[in-house]
């Protein structure tokens, strides 16, 4: 597994990061621990979680699985969401962040995080308060670097300006959604991160599993997948991807893959990993066998020019013909 250094940091990470949203739901503790071991054996040293993933259970399992190996990996966590209905805090206020990080550190069994992402914007809290709190946590040694997830380009611009104005360490790592079906960040977000050398850690490379090709429109989601069941995360994924036009695009992408002797999963992974604006791609897995298969797809050749053109044509059709507002 190739290693890279994230821009403006001393974090040397594998180009594949293991996402742990399935830990404690689709993957029980023993299976999650096997997933972690496979990652370490494959050279993956970058792990991603969030306090809201299965209400903290993902953090607990990941911390237990890493154990004494914690110092050998780069550990990223997130803050923003409400842990449960009875929780007295949520969002990105000073109080919420401080309570959240202490609880996350306890669940993970560590005393610091390498990256602490703002999971999504909090429009009820001043961004100045949020940034000041992150800087305090950094100076206290609880976090090494901060990052953003699900922010827009203009919001990143404001954050960089405020950090420079106040002498804070900027959040040099960003985590956007990016895959063959969701390429909206190409218009402004990726040009911005390139210009200001912000690291990009892309999530949802398989569109939550829609790009596996195993699901069919008009039918129920396959069992034990991110789309199946009544969990809040399952509803979120159905709202995000379970649409007829996406299924139509998947069928077209299947043809592209077949014409080039690839599986659809190989096409989807290879496309994201080949994007020059992306530093790291987050993998997800509900089982150790699934992870092994996904890791094998990372060894296939990059896309050729024809494949790239075909993928672009499918995206253009999916996006529509609305002109860009800027030139």
Count up the helices. Answer: 11
Q: What name is given to the CATH topology?
A: TIM Barrel
SS-based class: alpha/beta
Low-confidence stretches: none
Helical amount among residues, as a percent range? 40-55%
What does the average pLDDT come to?
94
Distance between the termini: 39 Å
Question: How do the helices and strands follow one another from N- to C-terminus?
Answer: EEEHEHEHEHEHEHEHHHEHH
Q: What is the CATH class name?
A: Alpha Beta
Shape: globular
| Main β-sheet, spatial strand arrangement | 3-4-5-6-7-8-9-10
Strand content: 5-15%
Radius of gyration: 19 Å
Largest sheet: 8 strands, parallel, barrel
Q: Specify the CATH architecture.
A: Alpha-Beta Barrel
* Beta-strand segment tally: 10
CATH superfamily: NADP-dependent oxidoreductase domain
Number of domains: 1
List descriptors:
single chain; 327 residues; alpha/beta; TIM Barrel; 8-stranded parallel barrel; 11 helices; 10 strands; globular
What can you see in these coordinates?
It is globular and about 55 Å long. A hairpin with a 6-residue loop joins strand 1 and strand 2 (12-14). It has a single domain, classed as TIM Barrel. Strands 3-4-5-6-7-8-9-10 form an eight-stranded parallel barrel. It is an alpha/beta fold. It has helices at residues 29-42, 57-66, 94-108, 127-140, 153-166, 189-195, 232-241, 244-259, 264-273, 288-297, 305-319, and strands spanning 3-5, 12-14, 16-19, 46-48, 74-79, 113-118, 143-149, 173-175, 199-202, 280-283. Helix 1 packs across helix 2 and helix 8 (244-259) runs antiparallel to helix 11. It contains eleven helices and ten strands.
